[in-house]
Amino acid sequence: MATEQAPDPQAPDPHDGTGADDVGPTARRIIVGAQLKRLREQADITRTAAGYHIRGSESKISRMESGKVGFKPRDIEDLLTLYGEHDEERRGHLLGIAMRSNEPGWWQRSGDAVPEWFSEYVGLESAAVRIQTYELLFVPGLLQTEDYARAIVTRGHPEGADAVTQERVRVRMARQRLLARPDAPHLWAVLDESVLHRPIGGHQVLAGQLDHLVEMSRRPNVTLQVVPNALSGYGGEATFTLLRFAEPDVPDITYIEGLTGALYLDRRAEVEEYARVMDELTIDAYSPEETRALLTKLRAG
After folding, report:
1. Confidence check: pLDDT of 296 > 70
2. Potential cystine with 29: which of 85, 101, 171, 190 (Cβ 3.0-4.6 Å)?
3. By residue range, what is the domain housing residue 265?
4. What pTM was estimated for this model as a whole?
5. Which pLDDT does position 108 carry in this prediction?
6. Which residue has the higher pLDDT, 282 or 168?
7. Are 121 and 70 part of one and the same domain?
8. How many independent structural domains does the chain possess?
9. Strand 186-192 relative to strand 130-135: parallel, antiparallel, unpaired?
């Protein structure tokens, strides 16, 4: 997305807290945790010893290093001293990131528009380096147009959208800006072909959505594939998303969303099973080039 051009809807807005430099508290915790682990290992100090030093446990150090918990300034300062990091500039920088990681993410200021169980996902999504998603019913949220998103959120009655509903749509659009960050994750989306024929919001809205999918599929960090109707239902039985992170100690996560909650699976065996299913889906699906051709054909028709 010699006359003035309209603003790019994908461009970060420096005034709404969703700019390229605002990756959210989850990402910041992961960054701080990785640095603490690196310093601890360089100092040849065990997690048990580090935990004892801050009146905690090995488990607490593990959670801190994996970015699963918030940070206390005193703990960070004590650990940096224990690890031999005495440079004031580096200490101050890491401590600053740690303190910002305790602040709510921009999406957490949206009240009831973002349920607590989904708030965790938005944080993880912003920290991921690869997002793989399989969708059976709708275009994935990161690829939806505003009209398409509004039709879903309002159950087909956009004229009746209240303030909370409008905020939900705004948050969904703001999430998409992570795809335009300098360090944008790679989004690999696999859609069931039925999604392309489901007239969410009416045929005009669907037409706009198809155009948007063609445009997004040309981005270097977006891979889009469609599973043809002939193979639909054989690969995946339900919608799911796989998240991968840069830090090796942060496990891949499988996210499965329900109507009133979600599952976050991080056990290796479970995640590997979903990764296997995703691999099979990408094999069954049209290639990215074939998918783009299909979208163009559907739009022309």
Report:
1. yes
2. 101
3. 106-300
4. 0.75
5. 54
6. 282
7. no
8. 2
9. parallel
